[in-house]
Write a structure and sequence with these properties.
- The relative contact order is 0.15.
- Helix 4 (about 140-145) packs across helix 7 and helix 6 crosses helix 7 (about 190-210).
- This protein has helices spanning about 5-20, 40, 125, 140-145, 155-160, 170-180, 190-210; strands at about 20-30, 45-50, 50-55, 60-65, 65-70, 75-80, 90-95, 100-105, 115, 250-255, 260-265.
- With about 270 residues, the chain is α+β, with helices and mostly antiparallel strands.
- The strands form three sheets. It has a five-stranded antiparallel sheet with strand order 2-1-7-8-6, covered by helices on one side. Strands 3-4-5-9 form a four-stranded antiparallel sheet. It has a two-stranded antiparallel sheet with strand order 10-11.
- The protein has two domains: about 5-125, Alpha-Beta Barrel (N-terminal domain of MutM-like DNA repair proteins); about 140-265, Helicase, Ruva Protein, domain 3, CATH 1.10.8.50.
Length: about 270
């Protein structure tokens, strides 16, 4: 599933091909994604692309009259292709761009979404969201204060978008390993020092992942590549029963709110 790093990598990858270019028109082969594609997107013509941004796991394309909001769902993938490349199965949307390129959206499972908002900041999906993890607002003071009195296990609490956005299941396990904090501990038990370590760990894990192209990224320029998924070097996630890279104890796995959590009981306290 595309997580924050994949969306950010995609944003960085496609932005140079889109910025200040014009969307000439759109081709919709299948309007039935998770929700029907917004009418404003179906009828788009001749709109200049002002910016390509990201909020949480949403990609935002800014146009003079509003914003295209893309969510990649389980299997969505955007590619920049030369015009004339034949569409394949699951290629649901093309934005035809003035520089002889196409921005093409592929989504085999169709859990993604293409929505429209005149102003995304007061859009219902965004008003509920917590801070961005890679901004200055997400710091040790914020995490410490927010966690006071919280009796939710720290890992589940970190994955709550109302606190901080974009920390998915993989990144929650990995960050807690780096910060040496057991995922089952209650959020309210974090010390100031641990809050500091955890904030640094989260930022490092996310930035490393963005640098490596995300853990589950489709190659946004590859012409005939299927959405190719690859895995970055993960320390604990998916490694149950294997030796910890740091101490050689065995990595354990537990279920928390139906999600798998991986950790080393020897390194994390
Ligand atoms: Zn260990």
């Amino acid at each position: 599933m595309p997580e924050l790093p994949e969306v950010e990598t995609t944003r960085r990858g496609i932005e140079p091909y889109l910025i200040n270019q014009t969307i000439l028109y759109t081709i919709i082969r299948n309007p039935h994604l998770r929700w029907p594609i917004s009418n404003e997107i179906l009828s788009l013509t001749n709109q200049i692309i002002l910016s390509v941004q990201r909020r949480a796991k949403y990609l935002l394309i800014e146009l003079p009259t509003g914003w295209i909001i893309v969510h990649f769902g389980m299997s969505g993938c955007l590619k920049v292709l030369p015009q004339g490349v034949m569409a394949k199965k699951h290629d649901h949307i093309d934005l035809i761009i003035s520089n002889n390129k196409i921005l093409r959206y592929n989504d085999p499972r169709r859990f993604g979404a293409w929505l429209w908002a005149e102003n995304f900041t007061n859009c219902r999906i965004f008003t509920q969201l917590g801070v961005e993890p890679l901004t200055m607002e997400f710091n040790k003071h914020y995490l410490f204060e927010k966690s006071r009195g919280k009796r939710t296990p720290i890992k589940s609490w970190l994955m709550n978008n109302k606190i901080v956005v974009g920390i998915g299941n993989i990144y929650a396990s990995e960050s807690l390993f780096f910060a040496k904090i057991l995922p089952e501990r209650l959020a309210g038990s974090l010390t100031k020092n641990e809050s500091n370590l955890l904030v640094s760990a989260i930022k490092t894990v996310l930035l490393d992942s963005i640098e490596q192209g995300g853990t589950t990224l489709c190659n946004f320029l590859q012409l005939d590549g299927k959405p190719g998924y690859f895995t970055q070097q993960l320390q604990v996630y998916g490694r149950a029963g294997k030796y910890c890279y740091r101490c050689t104890h065995i990595i354990e796995m537990v279920k928390q709110r139906q999600r798998s959590t991986f950790f080393c009981r020897h390194c994390q306290h």
